[in-house]
Amino acid sequence: MKKIEKKEKDILVLAIESSCDETAASVVRNGREIMSNAISSQIAIHTKYGGVVPEIASRKHIENVNGVIEKALKDAKITLEDIDVIGVTYGPGLSGSLLVGVSEAKAIAFATGKPLVGVHHIEGHIMANFIEHPDLKPPFLSLVVSGGHTHLVKVVDYGKYEIIGKTRDDAAGEAFDKVARAIGLGYPGGPKIDKISKSGDAKAIEFPRAHVSGAPYDFSFSGLKSAVLNYINSAKMKEEEIVVADVAASFQKAVTDVLVDKAINACNEFGFKTLAIAGGVASNSGLKKAMRKACKSNNVEFVFPSPIYCTDNAAMIGVAAYHEYLNENFAGWNLNAVPALKLGER
Ligand code: KG4
Ligand code: ZN
Q1: Which of 11, 82, 115, 118 has the highest Cβ tally under 10 A?
Q2: Angle at Cα 222 formed by Cα 219 and Cα 226, nearest 5°?
Q3: What pLDDT score was predicted for residue 85?
Q4: In this structure, are 124 and 257 located in the same domain?
């Protein structure tokens, strides 16, 4: 009876995301329609330091969170009263950053008496795919490639995941960021490598494609990162010219070859007909091009979010919160930030 009532009425989620360096809030209707998507990015501040400084990130979140929520409600042309549920990222991420969003969400839920839902950040990334693909539904395979995670995940049902592989060391986005720093492109590295790769030769340098023995769906990117550093050091010692665009393009190809290979093998082995990529690296143009081609020749439908829904945002958290709400996974007043939260854990 309760579930039927929920379906008859529109459910509006106010979602808050503050796990890293973006303070974001969004209003999402019925888990698919984005009524607003407000983001206050800290990239300009952290660029000065070459990466995210956690203490600064927390302080910026606390300054910006109310303004971002106000904007999300205003853009959606609603007030807090219209909201049915408050959703918030509670892990994984930087603890100080997560605590700002969690405290804010708890305060709003307490003051308004609305239900509170805690969302796993990676679940949000995966669910970003529902926003622009109304027909997408589980089961499907997802490749999550962000700054902190590289996971191959069976999406068995809404909110039900099985991890079949993950990185043993660096995440894909982390490798992009570290290599970008080494070749002088600065922070954030992924978009910069993506851009400059377009004018480089991906076959110029043969970097390794790492495979983990005995674990066909696990990843390892630290060897590749070292290979790029070695290449640069040796070129400098020999006083050879370093063509940054070629290094970037060859590195990007080495990462994407491995991502495409493993994702397609997993689709074939487990019989998935749909592959959805997610996370900041999912906006990489080289990855999308290679994945599209491989999916086509393997008869797999390829799904990916627009760049704005790949990198951190609150709309994806609102989508995930809606499904947690339908599953009646409500959070109590003891909801806390869980910096190392695993996917599938509560
Ligand atoms: O998902 P995300 O916004 O935050 C985390 O949850 O980590 O991912 C950020 C990561 C960064 O490492 C960034 O360099 C990478 O995604 N990234 C990209 C691109 N855009 C963002 N990597 C490759 N190509 C891109 N176009
Ligand atoms: Zn993220």
Answers
A1: 118
A2: 145
A3: 98
A4: no
**How much is the pLDDT for 7?**
54
From 18, 176, 287, 291, the mutation candidate for ligand 1 (largest count of ligand atoms within 8 A of CB) is 176
Task: Compute, in angstroms, the gap from residue 267 CA to the centroid of ligand 1.
Answer: 24
Q: Is the CB of 185 under 6 A from ligand 1?
A: no
Do 67 and 105 belong together in one domain?
A: yes
- Supply the residue whose CA is at minimum distance from atom 7 of ligand 1: 147
Is the pTM value of this prediction over 0.90? yes
Q: What CATH number does the domain containing 121 carry?
A: 3.30.420.40
Q: Are residues 259 and 190 in the same domain?
A: yes
Q: Give residue-wise pLDDT tens across range 9-53.
A: 899 999 999 999 999 999 999 999 999 999 999 989 998 888 899
> Which string of DSSP letters, residue by residue, matches 285-344?
HHHHHHHHHHHHHTT-EEE---HHHHSS-SHHHHHHHHHHHHTT----TT----TTPPTT
Residues 142 and 163 in one domain: yes
Cα of 332 vs centre of ligand 1, distance in Å, is 32
Measured distance CA(311)–CA(151) in Å, rounded: 16
Span from the CA of 281 to the centroid of ligand 1 (angstroms):
5
- Residue 20 Cβ < 6 Å to ligand 1: yes
Residues 287-318 pLDDT 10s: 999 999 999 999 999 999 999 999 999 999 99
State how many domains the chain has: 2
Q: Which domain holds residue 20?
A: 12-128+313-326
